[in-house]
Design a protein that fits this description.
Layout: H1 2-51, E1 53-54, H2 57-60, H3 66-86, H4 93-101, H5 108-127, E2 132-134, E3 151-154, E4 165-171, H6 176-193, E5 199-205, E6 209-217, E7 224-228, E8 232-233, H7 246-256, E9 273-275, E10 278-287, E11 297-305, E12 316-320, E13 323-327, E14 337-340, H8 345-351, E15 355-360, H9 364-373, E16 381-387, E17 394-399, H10 411-430, E18 433-434, E19 443-446, E20 449-452, E21 459-460, H11 461-477
Parallel strand pairs: 1-7, 4-5
Antiparallel strand pairs: 2-3, 3-4, 5-6, 6-7, 6-8, 9-10, 10-11, 11-15, 12-13, 13-14, 14-16, 15-17, 16-17, 18-21, 19-20
């Protein structure tokens, strides 16, 4: 009886022990991931720091005017005074970070990030920056791969795309090499999205130092070269944060500089136009087409009901392979030819949302594949095919407007993505479509569900089977 009771207790305790072991393994996995990521960033930083040239900040960035210097002085003094109201002994940014943490070992994201963002926003207001300052680590990351930037200077407010990134800033408690490694990764993504850009400034910031980098891209090879300043202090001769500190002044210069000084060229986007009876507007460039890397140009846009005051649109209708088409007018009106997707009015209305993806430069093969896919639950849907005003390339409008993760999602979201992508593959099999390019770059998330998109490499199943049969026949004959 005692043995049976002991066995019952062990059996009852087993789930708890398993849960403890699982938690320990999960924590160890997270630590390994963080450690491995940090080691990679430091390794990248060491390579580029060893080969870096010297950057003269006085030549690279315009000097501040006297009014701007006065404004920076008063703003930094006011910020320091506000911090002292909470933490009386604070003199520097490092003091404030430790005081906020209540310990000598603060956390970079919880304690340093908010205070540095507060400093940057104060300096931006002081110099009257024209750029949009965004906390793209906490509030909303840059869409696509490349990681979450601590602070982004964007050309347009609220547009978190690599195509609109002007300057990246990374914060570290102490390690400037890790900050440089992260900035190199971010700049690679920036240059990929801005194919005509040749250089960009980037800022690495610790609790008491700032370093400015100019990252240059070779237009032929895509190789990067870095020039850097010496680390500049955020403290003055009296060992407190002030406008007399070279690091504070340089950070203000970065914020005051125009987008052209940063090497940024605003993207060219299509004009607003009517497509399939709805107004297509608010274009935001997500991925440019490039001769170096063939592919379509991708925009995010709004596809709205035409306002009542919109002038009447002359249209004509015809039929192409049983699909309704309508011309949306001449070049003097709004745009080119449009093909709407088959489906009942109720089905179309239920699936129409304001946000959409506009892909310009697609092939006839991709359009046919999207028509074959139809309205599968976990694949993007073809809403219309057309030619935009002033552009003779074929264009498709897709929904929903999926979000691509910039960093690895949590395990629950990852499991949901995996399940939905598996469902999408099964759905495509039912309609005889092979996607043939399933990767993290072609998986999106929208409203709690995973979606598969980008069918440019896809094929119809009967075509793939024919090719395989021909190949087997040739092998047998050989």
């Amino acid at each position: 009886a005692r043995q049976e009771a002991a066995a019952a207790r062990q059996e009852a305790a087993a789930p708890k022990q398993q849960a403890v072991v699982a938690q320990q393994e999960s924590a160890a996995l997270r630590m390994n991931r963080c450690s491995q990521t940090t080691q990679n960033e430091v390794a990248i930083g060491k390579v580029f720091a060893a080969e870096a040239g010297v950057l003269d900040a006085a030549v690279a960035l315009p000097a501040l005017s006297q009014d701007q210097l006065n404004s920076v002085t008063s703003s930094v003094a006011s910020l320091l005074q506000a911090w002292r109201a909470t933490w009386p002994d604070v003199k520097t940014l490092e003091d404030a970070v430790k005081a906020k943490a209540g310990t000598s070992n603060p956390n970079e994201k919880k304690h340093m990030q908010p205070l540095v963002m507060e400093l940057i926003e104060v300096l931006g207001d002081a110099v009257g920056t024209k750029l949009s300052i965004a906390d793209t680590h906490q509030e909303g990351p840059i869409d696509g791969q490349g990681g979450a930037i601590d602070c982004s200077l964007l050309w347009r407010k609220g547009v978190h795309h690599w195509s609109y990134l002007v300057c990246a800033l990374e914060f570290k408690l102490k390690d400037m090499l890790a900050a440089l490694g992260q900035l190199i990764t971010r700049c690679r993504c920036m240059f990929d999205a801005q194919s005509e850009r040749t250089f960009a400034f980037a800022v690495g910031l610790t609790c008491n130092q700032l370093q400015l980098y100019r990252v240059q891209s070779n237009p032929t090879t895509g190789a990067l070269y870095v020039e850097k300043t010496i680390p500049l202090s955020l403290e003055d001769a009296q060992q407190q944060m002030s406008a007399e500190a070279q690091g504070i002044t340089l950070l203000a210069q970065v914020l005051a500089a125009g987008s052209n000084v940063h090497g940024f060229k605003p993207p060219v986007v299509p004009v607003d136009q009517v497509v399939a009876g709805r107004l297509l507007c608010g274009f935001q460039l997500v991925r440019p087409g490039s001769s170096k890397v063939p592919g379509a140009t991708v925009y995010k846009a709004k596809w709205r009901q035409v306002p009542q005051q919109q002038p009447p649109i002359d249209s004509q209708a015809s039929s192409i392979q049983g699909v309704n088409t309508a011309g949306i007018g001449s070049e003097e009106s709004f745009g080119g030819d449009t093909m709407e997707v088959d489906g009942s009015d109720d089905e179309q209305q239920a699936s129409v949302d304001d946000d959409c993806i506009v892909k310009v430069g697609v092939t006839d093969k991709e359009v046919k594949l999207l028509q074959q896919v139809g309205h599968q639950p976990h694949c993007v849907r073809l809403m219309a095919a057309c030619t935009l005003h002033g552009n003779q390339q074929q264009c498709v409008i897709l929904q929903p407007c999926v979000h691509v993760f910039s960093t690895a999602p949590d395990l629950k979201t990852l499991a949901k993505l995996g399940s939905d992508v598996a469902s999408a593959i099964a759905e495509l099999f039912e309609v005889k479509v092979y996607h043939r390019d399933i990767s993290r770059n072609n998986i999106g998330f929208y409203n709690g569900s995973g979606y598969l998109f980008d069918f440019s490499a896809g094929k119809l199943r009967h075509r793939v089977q024919t090719v395989i049969k021909c190949w087997l026949a040739m092998r047998i004959l050989a």
